[in-house]
Each structure stands twice: as C-alpha cells, then as structure tokens.
Amino acid sequence: MRPQIWRNFDFILLLTTLLLIAFGLAMSYSTSLTTVPAGTPYLSHPTVRQGLYAATGLVFMALAVYMDYRVFRHLAPFLYVFTMIFLVVVIAIGTATHGSRRWVDLGPFPIQPSELAKLVLTIALAAFIAARQDKVKKLSTLVGSFAIVAVPVVLVYLQPDLGTIIIFACIWLGMALMSGMRITFFAGLGAAAVASIPFVYEKILHGYMRQRLATFLDPASDPLGAGYNVQQSEISVGSGGLLGKGFAQGTQSQLHFLMVQSTDFVFSVVGEELGFVGALVLFFLFIVLLFRCLRAATRSQDTFGRLLAVGVTVQLLFQVFVNVGVNTRLLPVTGIPLPFISQGGSSLMTILLSLGIVQSIVLRHKRLEF
Q1: Which of 94, 106, 222, 274 is deepest in the core (most CB within 10 A)?
Q2: Is residue 241 scored above 60 in pLDDT?
Q3: ω before 160 within 30° of 0 (cis)?
C-alpha cells in the first residue's frame, strides 16, 4: 500500500464508529444489569461478549481498510455462492428460536448468516451493475439485479425473517436507483407491488407477519400478548422526557416491563434512560456516519466503489429508520436490530467490516487531499 494514500484516511468515520461502539456497549451494560443472573461467568456476560465481538469486528475493519476494495469485485461470485449455501445450511440445521431458524450454533459464538448476506448482496449487486454500466438503462440489467436479490430473499423467507427481507429489498432499490436505471421501470414495479398486496397478505406472509401488521394497527386488541411489547416500548420512549430517568435507572427496562430490550427494543431504553437529548446524540452520530459513507461514494474512482458505498449507506439508514420507527410505533415490528446499539455479534462484526470497505474506498480515490 502506498504511504501517501493514508493522507486520505477518514478519521471522522473512525471516531464516529468508535463512539457508536461505546454507546452500544453502555446500553448493553444497562439492559443486562437486572437480566444477567448472579454468578454468570465473566466471558458469558452479554456486555463482555459484545465487547469481544466489537474487538473482532475492528480487526476485520482494519483488514478491509488495508485491502484494495476492488478485490471484492473479483470475489463477488464466490462470496455470493458461499453465502447462499450458508443460508441453506441455516434452514437445514440452524438453531430454532421463536419458530424461526436464523442462527448456526458454533459453540459459544452463534453466527447469523443473514447479517453477512446483507454485505455480500451489496458487493454482488455493485459488481453486477458495474459490469453492465453501459447497459444500465436496459430492462435486462434490472431483471438481472432483481434475480440476484431474489435468491437470498427466498432463502431468508424460509427461515423466516421479515426484517432481513425488507433490508435486502431496500439495498437493491437504493443501489438500482443510484445506478441510473430508468425510473419508468420502478414505476411499473411499484404499481405491480401495490396491486399484489391482497395476494401477498393472504398467500405469502407467514401467520406471525400478519399478526404483527394487525398489532401495529391496533396494539390494544391484545395488550398482554402480541401488542404488549409495542405498548411498553411506546411508554418507555415517552416516559424519558427531555433528559431521561438516568443511565441504568429506567423503570420500564430495569423492572422488566419492556421485553427484548437488548435487541429489537433497545432504542426504547435509550429514550427512557437518556431522554430526548440522548436520542438526539445517537441520531447525530448516525447522521455523521451516514454522511461519511456518502462522502466515500462521491469520491470513489469507479462505479463499483460508488455503488458499494451507497449500498452500505442504504443498509445502515434503513436499519436505523425501521428500528426507531418500530420503537415509536410508526412501523410494524420487524425484528431489525439498531446498528451498533442492539446486542448481536453477527450484526456488529458485519457492519464494522462494511465500514472498513468504505474506508478502503476513501483511501483509494483519485484525489490525494484529505
């Protein structure tokens, strides 16, 4: 690696990443205070495990920074096939939890392949579209890109995992739009999607997916069942007020009224304990991170790098948007984690690897000034 390209290193991107990791570890500690039994081995504590995942992810990030991101363009077909096989393995022998198979048990550190699939799908789409840049406005390019995303969508549907399917669709849509495909194609797809809503609702959606939609429309219809988490998250966010009840002092979370508080509903804990100001700080960090990713896209020296950075940006943006929307009852429950903040090793390590690739794009743009 040429020494002069380090002049381009995005220290703001790195600093923001580290601050978000620290924020997430703090919330992991808070949500674990009253849920971890006394005498739990040190390495089994959720916050310690999350810290180990963060450290491992930072190693992956450093390796990705050192590598030339264009290597991933050549590796895209192999990464895609490997990941699809991994998703099939999950369906066949994955650990069943709450009626779905999303994890492969590798001893003390289970892996969720669908998290890795988000990054691999981004790489595969970027490579495919970049190779057909002169044909990007043709229908065949749209159909080909759609076929690439359709395979993981089907495999994740069989797990089932509605949240990941939504993220796959958002990644594809964002990258396809930014690549310059004809808007008329998307208008037609949008019309077809709207027309198919009744069929999808009755024939495609799993029972739990329909239940979540019904709960979203009327959570009071089952306040102690399907609507319980939705109502408790709304109470948690609202009760925090301007400054919150204090770190690790939330009554909804510490007294276990709020379930799934370390993953799907962790933003509710942020709202209750740190208040509106704490939520604004978190949003500010996310906004800075997203803009640094977009900066990488604008400075990329090739179409592949630009689309890769756009795909990472879209993934992070929609995960934040959907998770916060679920916690504030603006969207139905989908099970999408809040990047950096929700507990989960596969998600955190994949995000850090993705940001390492974005940093690699920044380092290797044509202009050498910072």
Answers
A1: 274
A2: yes
A3: yes
